[in-house]
Specification:
single chain, 332 residues, mainly alpha, Farnesyl Diphosphate Synthase, 2 domains, two-stranded antiparallel ribbon, globular, Polyprenyl_synt_CS, Polyprenyl synthetase family protein, metal-binding
Length: 332
């Protein structure tokens, strides 16, 4: 692992070197944790883990641990493995739900084998994560159980429409908080906890992690509409075509302006037709909902940075502030 692969912007050379070295150590541990009693299960378990990924969650564990008195404690490494194993396990299940064929440039497990193998491999990795969590003690077990419940509930809520008396945007934000925010919050909490940070720092970093985790997903929503394919590396409007509700779409749908009648008509129907999809995409790009969505993400980043005032000024706080800014400006 090289410094260029760090998912967080770190400008302090000494801090960067420490994080790179620790992540390399965690990478070896993750490889070992994918090993099962049989080669077949080992291959399936290592399939997505070794396909790459930014390792943002274990990196956040390591960075949060720097706020404590013993950031290099063995428990920090274990916690970093716990969150990444949990994350990768959830990807196996996500790919089955989405009927996806590719993940991180490789065949998904369900495409390479079948849905049964993919689901059970995800379960295997969740089990391995639980084993490691048990080594961290009862508090960690309780935190992990709550995180897992929120993650699963978020995935379930994503599959159902909000009720007639529910606000669609709040429903969506709850989905994002569960699916994405919860595990990133736990990553920051674990790092601060096992690095020996003060209790008020642990709580502040947990709240920071949830906000930044949600903001990362919300900025993806904006990029899905705003970016050209050559900039983002993926086809613009993919969520729109698949009928997936996202932040700008939901904000646009809340409009009562008669001038938005055509856009609202398009958003109320499937957009599988190329011409209708392109028209909706153009209308959305020019709609005030885009700036409204950007403003929301920027305000969330500011809220996350405010929580970091509990930390003394220095390279760690700067890196965490920079990441919150980077998440926000991805959508600006």
């Amino acid at each position: 692992m090289t410094s260029s692969s760090l998912a967080l912007p770190v400008v302090d050379t000494a801090l960067e070197q420490r994080l790179v070295a620790r992540l390399a150590r965690v990478e070896e541990l993750l490889k070992a944790h994918c090993e099962a009693r049989t080669p077949y299960v080992t291959r399936a378990a290592a399939h997505l883990m070794m396909a790459g990924g930014k390792r943002f969650r274990p990196l956040l564990v390591m960075l949060a641990a720097e706020t404590g008195t013993h950031p290099d404690a063995p428990e920090v490494d274990t916690a970093a493995c716990v969150v990444e194993l949990t994350h990768v396990a959830s990807l196996y299940h996500d790919d089955v739900m989405d009927e996806a064929d590719l993940r991180r440039g490789a065949d998904t497990a369900n495409a390479r084998w079948d849905n049964h193998v993919a689901i059970l491999t995800g379960d295997f990795l969740f089990g391995r994560s639980s084993e490691l969590t048990a080594d961290l003690g009862p508090d960690a077990v309780r935190i992990q159980a709550r995180t897992f419940n929120r993650l699963v509930e978020g995935q379930i809520l994503e599959t159902v429409e909000p009720g007639p008396d529910e606000d669609a945007l709040q429903h969506y934000l709850e989905v994002v908080a569960g699916k994405t925010g919860s595990l990133i919050a736990t990553s920051a909490r674990y790092g601060a906890m096992f690095g020996g940070a003060r209790p008020e720092v642990v709580e502040a970093l947990s709240a920071y992690g949830e906000i930044v985790g949600m903001s990362f997903q919300l900025s993806d929503d904006i990029l899905d509409i705003a970016s050209a394919s050559e900039e983002s590396g993926k086809t613009p409007g993919t969520d729109l075509r698949e009928g997936v509700p996202t932040l700008p779409v939901l904000m646009a749908q809340a409009s009562t302006d008669p001038a938005d009648a055509r856009l609202l008509e398009l958003l109320s129907q499937p957009l599988t037709d190329d011409a209708l999809h392109a028209e909706a995409l153009d209308l959305l790009r020019d709609h005030p909902a885009m700036d409204q969505a950007r403003g929301y993400v920027l305000s969330e980043a500011a809220r996350a940075k405010k929580l970091l005032e509990v930390l003394d000024p220095g390279p760690v706080r700067t890196a965490l502030e920079s990441f919150a800014d980077a998440v926000a400006t991805r959508s600006a």
